[in-house]
Amino acid sequence: MSLLLRDYEYHLPDELIARYPAPRREESRMLVLHRDSGAIEHRRFTDFPGYLRAVDLCVVNDARVIPARVLAEDPKVELLVLERPTPQRWICWVKPGRRARLDREIVVDGVRGRVTEILPEGERVIEFPLAPDLEAIGHLPLPPYLGREDEASDRERYQTVYARREAAAIAAPTAGLHFTPEIFARVPHARVTLQVGVGTFQPVKTDDITQHHMHREHFEIDAGAAAAINAAKRIVAIGTTSVRVLEACARDAGGRVLAQTGSTDIFIHQPGQLHHVDALLTNFHLPKSTLLMLISAMAGRERVLAAYAEAVRERYRFFSYVDCMLIV
Known about the structure:
By secondary structure, the protein is an alpha/beta fold. The chain folds into two domains: about 5-65 and about 145-325, QueA-like, CATH 3.40.1780; about 70-135, QueA-like (Thrombin, subunit H). The protein has helices at about 135, 155, 180-185, 225-230, 240-250, 290-300, 300-315; strands at about 30-35, 40-45, 55-60, 65, 70, 80-85, 90-95, 105-110, 110-120, 125, 170, 190-195, 215-220, 235-240, 260-265, 280-285, 325. Strand 6 (about 80-85) and strand 7 form a beta hairpin. Helix 6 (about 290-300) crosses helix 7.
């Protein structure tokens, strides 16, 4: 596997970036890549259950996207709420940061907060006497490549049908967006949680990809999910976030996944880092992104890039909304 950033580039015409979802979730096209042979099939997502074997278990990330993008009134800054340890204490990225210096007042929805700490990577800790209503005033932090503001319909469509309200994230586990309640009910599954953070938007800036460092993200696997995963003969991960949880978990001497709550900055870019995933449903990812590197670790960089070139020729729609890829 290449460790050079330039080897994860591919050409994508701008018009193939899906800025809105299909009218119905299950209408997505699905490119199937057989990683042993490199063979490609062109299917629909409605065909997905037919690719599951009797021994398969799908592992889904049930994180829910919160309206984490907030426009402050004074000063005029944009907050991206990364964590809320308490309703009154927010850990945020602030843009522009120079307007949110230590001890600066920040007014959000009429409530005056104060910057009480600046963390090592630049995040601001803002403390409010009363908690602003994030659900009412916040916007969904849509990926920058969509090139638009969030709309009312995104509150439903940029969310999986199995999202758990308590599991907050700032980006959707987008491979799961294709499921309807009816299709989800047909597949055997276990739930894990990765609270997808700002790292999902961060580009790799080093020529040697091993020098890239991921932001830490919180994850959780409960005892029931761990037992189901350990008992399964074959694991089908629904999305790269599910892969990251499975591979981040500490394992005991028997190689089992352990129930736990923790955080991870795992960066998967080599085949030897994959131990628990036999197949993967995923969306198409940005050039030179850590997610493209992850699926290349699973299926081989040359085969993945060949499949992407085929998807471009066949006019698949890329990134968060619409079409997907199944690696088997």
